[in-house]
Structures are given as structure tokens and as C-alpha cells.
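I am writing to request your help with a piece of structural work I have in hand. I set the record out below, with my sincere thanks for your time.
___
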Amino acid sequence: MTTLGRVGLAILTAATLATSACATSTAPSAQSDAPAATGTVTLVTHSSFQLPENVLADFTKQTGLAVRTVELGDGGELATKLSLTPGNPPGDVAFGVDNTYAARPVRAGVFDEYVSPAAANGARDYALAGMPQLTAVDFGDVCVNIDTRFFKDKNLPEPVTYQDLAKPEYRGLTVVQNPETASPGMAFLAGTVATLGDGWQDYWRALRTNDVAVTPNWTTAYSTDFSGSSGRGPKPIVVSYASSPAAEVGKDGAAPPTKALLDTCFRQVEYAGVLRGTKNPDGARKLIDFLLSPAAQATIPDAMYVYPVTRGVPLPEAWAKYAPVPPKPATLPADRLADERDGWVRQWRQLMGR
């Protein structure tokens, strides 16, 4: 992701539905004191993948393997395209399949089983039940964000919960993303299902009555419509990320004018896995191990605007202060997401008159 687009800004443009263009690149081999690369490991990933070149160069220095990347669109496209070619992969290892899409490629036989020894230091806490093929690398939380200045200026209490957004005093103030075309929109929908249970449909009816705005992607919602971003739009409530406020800290270190509502969060975890049929399984495993190393994990917040899974990795100062990890985000089993997601979206479309 770039620094403020997961925050166009660096919030992952996993937040928006990317085009299906495919791109490739090769990380430079390590600096002059490093041995020349003796081979290549191909990483298949999404369009928001971003690690510093010097970090990938360190991997080359340690292993003699250069990293070549192949991008397959956003996280949903990545999962879908990998699922079409099980056993005949476009690379050696994949990164960026998240828990909302994970069951699809796992069921298709895309991955070989591999549990990294480094997973014991935190990644195992995010393992998906019955899916030893996938290793967690990072996580983020999709949450409602608010423009705190608006509520102070209007002398209006800040909303706290999902249900608050449907109250009359917040009529016309909220913008969300279409779950058909934007991953944060899908996560927000899943969060309402997880939190409200059978009442999620009534909730969306109430949101529609309360004049909720729906955009096709995260960028439009956050960077154009949200009043708390540089776009200074008309809506003081937006679906974004728990990490978004850290990107709004002033250049002088001033507190951001936004905050995430931690009772409205749904957790997304990104995974890596060895692709079945790879010609370099050893290199694939080494790259997964490396992605869990403290050195690589420490770069993840600033590079991709998500949280590291390895224990003991410090967050940047602004994150620790303004983007704390939500203590109790909503979650759903990956199998349920795979089985019911399309049905939820169809019902959502009907409820919203689309």
C-alpha cells in the first residue's frame, strides 16, 4: 500500500477494488558487500504489497535468493486468480490472501502445508482453523472513523457503536463502501453480521433510512467524502481502518483530527503460503520465515499500514498513541465467510435498493 491510500495516503489500496492488471518486479540484490544472488523466489501478491527494498535485499543477503514479485490485483483478485490454477502456480509463494477470502484457494488446493517455526512467536495466534497451509503475516482492523472536530463544533455527542450510526441525530453523516467492490465495505458488512447477528438486515434498513451514502471504493469515501481527510468532504463518519488516524497526525506531531471507533471494528488478517507445484519450495518457505522476522515485521506498519503479528515488534510512536490495536474486534470463521459472503451481498443489494 502507499502511505495514506491502505491509508492512498499508506492505507492499503486493498481498500479499493484494484484493476486486474498484472505487474512484475525484482528486488535488487543486496549491497556490494553481499554475495550475488544464486537464484530467485517468485512472490505472488496483491497490488498493495510494499516492503522497503533494503529489507528484501537483506533476504537476498541471507539466502542468496533474489525476490521477484508478481502482482495479481487486489486481495480478492489474488485469491480468485490463484484458485483458477491450483498446482500450476504463477510463482513460488503467495502473500496477501486475507481471512475473508482464504477458504476459497485453500479448498481449491492452491497451497502446500507449511507451518513456519517463526509462527510460534505470534503468527500462530492468527492461524485459521483447519488451514495449516496459511501463515499469518500482518493484520488490520476495518473500523468506523470520525472527524472529531465536526462533533465538537456541532456540540454533538460522538457515535460509539454500529447502532449509533442509525440514530436520527447522525442522519446523512455517514459514508460507507459497497461490499461488492471494496474490501473495507465487505469487512464492514461482515462486522455487522458478526456483531448484530440476525438483526443485521434491520440495521441496514435503518442505515438506508438514515441516508447513509455508499461509494464504490475506499478512496472516494475517505479522500473525497470524509471531512476529516485532506479532501474535507461533507461526511464526518466514514468506514476506514484503525490505523487511519496515525496517517492524519500533523507534520508538527499535532494530534490527528480523527479517531477510530474501536467498538465497530472487523479484523482482517493477511496470510502467506507455499504454492502447490512450485519449483522452489525451499525458497518459498525461507521467504515466509523471513516475513515473520522482527526486522521485516518492524517495517510493516509504515510500509503497508497494518500491524505486525510477531510479538515484541514495537509500533511507530504515532501508532502507539493514535492507532492502538482494537482490543475486541469482530471476527467470523473463514469457512463461514466463504459459504455465506455472496448471500450477504445479495441481501445487502436488495436492502439498499441496488
